[in-house]
Amino acid sequence: MQVTRSLCLLLLPLTIPWSGLLAGDAAEQPQYVQTLGESEIDPGNPPTSLIANFQMGYVTGVRTEGPAKVYFGFRPSVGKMVVVLELPGLGAASQAELALALPGGKLAKGVVTSFRAGRGGALLHDVGVLPEGDHLLTGALLDAQGRATAAIKSTFRRIPLPWLNSKVGIPDTPPPPFTPVTLTDQTVTAIGRTYTIGQDGNFRSLTVLGEEILASPIRFEAEAGGATTAIAGTKTVFGKCAPTGVRWESEAAGSGLLIRSSVAFEFDGMARYDIAVKPSAEPVKLSRLSLVIPLKEKYGLLFHALPVTGKFREYVTAKMLDEKDGVLWDSKTWSETAEGVARRPLGNFVSMLWLGGHIRGLAWFAESERGWVPDNGKACQVITRGTGVVELAIHFVASPFTLSEPRKITYGFLATPPKPLPPDYRLWDRGRTETVGPVGGRLTSCEAFAPWKTQIKDQANGKVECFNYWPANSDWGLVRKAAEIQRGLNEPKYHKGTALMLYHDRNRLPIRPAERPYYEWVWRCGSYPPDLVDTLAWHMDKWIENGIDGIYIDDVFPQQDCNGGPVGTAYWLAPDGATTFSLEEGPEAYGRFKALEKDGKTAQKVYGANYFQYREYMKRLYTLFVQHGKRPIITTHDTSTLVWPWHSFVTVVFDCEESGRFTEATTTYMDAWPLERFMAIDNPERSGIVTIPMLKGAYMARMSPAQRYATERSAWAVWLLFDHNVPMAGRDTKKSRLFSALDGYYYGSDVQVFPFWRNEDVVKVEARVEPPLKEYDLPKQWKAKFWTAEQCKRVSEKPLYVTLYKKGNRCLVVAANFLKKAVDGKVTLALHKLGVPTTSADSLKVEDLDDWGPPRDAPEPKSSSPDSLDDVTPPKSVEPGAPERPLKREGNTLSFRVSGQDFRAIELSW
């Protein structure tokens, strides 16, 4: 049976010559047509029309004979061809038969079953990628009785694609600092982590940096017939271990189920699970099917959750879990109440969850809930605390369901940190290219080469833009020239000899005009099929070869993928909430889809994320830098998100773009960014990534000078607590003892840092706040939604945090106060652990190093009254060299006051 589907395309035909792209007579060059209006196209089976934008982009045939004009829509990502015929007049034909000549004498055949307004088309299957060159189409127009009325002949010209099936950046051995994967018995290692695999294929043990983080083995769990049963493993078989990874196959059985797992483990410690769940015999009635991940309590302290998509600048995705037993978090409540999160058509799937302590942790992620059985009334994912354990339960089946045939589910794990910080991480982006090379230069640019701009005209939309994925006319010599010129410049933004960082945006893809009809339909909507990864890697290889030192990628946060499989991660969901459809499933799935239509029911499209293919690109990009003999400098901007599957291969993150956070002119940095959010996302030791926060002047322009000073001090309080890499650009360090010390003495890799999350054996912190503590003394949760009541309660109980910097015979004590009210602090130091000789303890010199005062001619920020919560009470400013309360020392204890949302910097020397 032939099925027709009406195709309504949005724009009028647009033809653009491909001049200069192909050899030969210009009259024989294909013409690009973006859209074709309304046509009848036989989709065949399976339903390619379910992929978003499948009918976008055509080229005209060359050397066409016969009455019909021929348009080719080549879809190499899926190996298919859409052929559309345009007839000279209405009623010229009823049908058409088509055949495209393929290599080896084969033919791809199709039938145009009807014409509308003179247009009709057919989808040719099994076309493949096609070799470069000309491919002949023949056929005939048919009348209503099926008689041939005219012959059709045209040629499709496949253009050169130099990057096609490129293998550049695919490593044979892990690039440093990653190390080769090893396999001993059933234990697999990646850098810093050891995984022991159980008979069910799950992790039985997982040690990170020498510490076991699992409370018990990860397990499958089923609920059927009122009983809950762990599904026991029966066997695990490992494949050959290569330096870059290893695979294993496992089986588990129980509760009438058989679960087969196929696992691919990679050198950064990522494990991809493709599991097939089916009845072991008869259909099984399930109430629940879950994956349970039990972590030791100390590694279930912080969490970070990411949806498939949403308004990432508004996300409240990272915090500390509440200190209570029972349910700590569930995806249903979070999806219904969280800011900026896009809702799902069914259920409340969350695409990534990370749980961990200050340094060690475990991320679970999946691109979609395809294969699951979600329920609007129940949570897909739940975090609970019991005695000594924090469990993350992933409910694949959350609604009563009879399993009668196999279901496929895909997800991944990554234990963190995936790599160590570079030994010289404290030097990155601090402006010393002459000493430390590219890592000491500007690590981001909003232009491909600034101020060097090479303009090309985007022929599809008429815009003129700087090149960013390729130089004009593929002139890579132009890249080398631009690099040479930029490195020779000397100006405030780009100092002489600066590192050359290429600007990219994850949303902007390298579709050259000639490739647009082949790939525009799929290289969009958040999809990253393998051919897009190939072309990105190929272009990056050229960029690195010709002079760039690093890459900055903007907008690296989860974006919905609206293309269906196999090119994307979206899928179609039937009204029963359990039946799904996608391209690769073939005619049977399409038959179900059409049966729904006959019954008057409609399937819904469910968007996915893209984790696995984009991470493949990032892995290849990282490897390319190493293969070219360069340090990988891969910088992402990912405010409020840290997408773990990608960030194994990222070396620098920019965070904290304030758009939407500074809701009023009196909002401080600490108001906008809660401490717990920094602890979960921005701890460089936990991520292995150099972290560079942002504080843009544009969002501070409406503040008074005094408020701007207060906001900036609250930012530096956080940055110094976390030892973030903050460039000193714009600071006159010669006029400030504080910034002179930070930029000079406490600058290098030989500085020993004792951050607040692991310095309990070196420092004891006590804090006292004058009672009573009012609501307006807390961070601004009542307007800025980013501080929760629980977070405010915790910071009221522990408002003061201390980080130490030690070098030689000097130690800098930084104490930060997160309350809006002044705090009296006592800091007791274990001097011997700081290397202070016993003979020097009594003569220890202690002084306030902080001489950064407010603008002398600026009035104080206006404080809010206790009766009004419309404004904040900004930190009270400190006169240069004259703290509010004198610093006192009694033995090894320092006593001092820290103003609201401010810091103190005190130096010890001996």
Can you offer a commentary on this structure?
The chain is an alpha+beta fold and 910 residues long. The chain folds into 4 domains: 5-158, Sandwich (Immunoglobulin-like); 182-416, Beta-galactosidase, Chain A, domain 5 (Distorted Sandwich), CATH 2.70.98; 425-563 and 610-696, TIM Barrel; 711-909, no CATH class. The strands form 10 sheets. Strands 27-26-29-30-34-23-22-21-20-19-25-32-31-28 form a 14-stranded antiparallel sheet. Helix 5 (530-545) packs parallel to helix 7. It is globular and about 105 Å long. The chain starts with a strand and ends with a strand.
Strand line-up of the largest beta sheet = 27-26-29-30-34-23-22-21-20-19-25-32-31-28
Main β-sheet description: 14 strands, antiparallel
Overall 3D form: globular
Under the CATH scheme, the architecture of the largest domain is: Distorted Sandwich
Count of discrete structural domains: 4
CATH topology of the largest domain: Beta-galactosidase, Chain A, domain 5
Low-confidence stretches: 1-24, 860-883
So what's the oligomer here?
A: single chain
Total strands: 53
Secondary-structure-based class equals alpha+beta
Distance between the termini: 90 Å
Q: Count helical runs.
A: 15
Radius of gyration, taken over Cα atoms and rounded to an integer in Å: 31 Å
